[in-house]
Sequence to fold (237 residues):
Amino acid sequence: MLDFDKIRARAAKRKGGEAVLAALLGSAPDNAALAKIPDRRILSTMAERVFAAGFVWRVIEQKWPGFEEAFLGFEPKRLLFQPDDFWHDLTADKRIVRNPQKIKSVRDNAAFVERMSKEHGSFGKFLSQWPADDQIGLTAYLAKHGSRLGGNTGQYFLRWLDWDSFIISQDMGAALRDAGLDISENPTSKRDLSRIQIQINNWVQETGLPRKHISRILAMSIGENHAPETIREYTGE
Fold:
């Protein structure tokens, strides 16, 4: 495998220097802090990432206050108490994106959040206790037990909550292959995901960097060289 210092140096050169690169990495996540996040914010973040998938993120962000109103502040217990008519009426509610399947996912995920909260004290506590070196296991769990949380949606959900996650974007995958990791161009198999997890964990041990920072450095080291301003707008940091 290519030494990670060389990958970082290439990313820094592309972005205009080490200082610029460091500023683009964002804050270091604190998985333990997720224990304090209320379930309503967990469900809201889930829903935002589900609705943003395959859609223009900026549109979802602009409409989000309307989503919060329409979905009763994303309080799981309150949503689960609503009758079928409430959910049917949302498919015609102009405050939100009226996608019936994604609306249904909010109801399903409210049940998921509530169930995990009963088992662990809160959904945030469940996430905070999951081993940081097993993101692949966590995203597989989210995909199996949640609704529409598979693939990159689960990864973005964790990132938006500031769980220390990597995101297997096209550029990150390309950087991993360029570094010598034997994975496919669309690394979604258990074999490929396991290899990615192991390599990221190795780099964490070698560099002391969070997985979030390693992920961003990889993505910025190859592919289209986006301007720092574009990256800041994308990440919101």
Q: What stands out?
A: The first helix runs from residue 4 to 15. The CA atoms of residues 214 and 226 lie 17 Å apart.
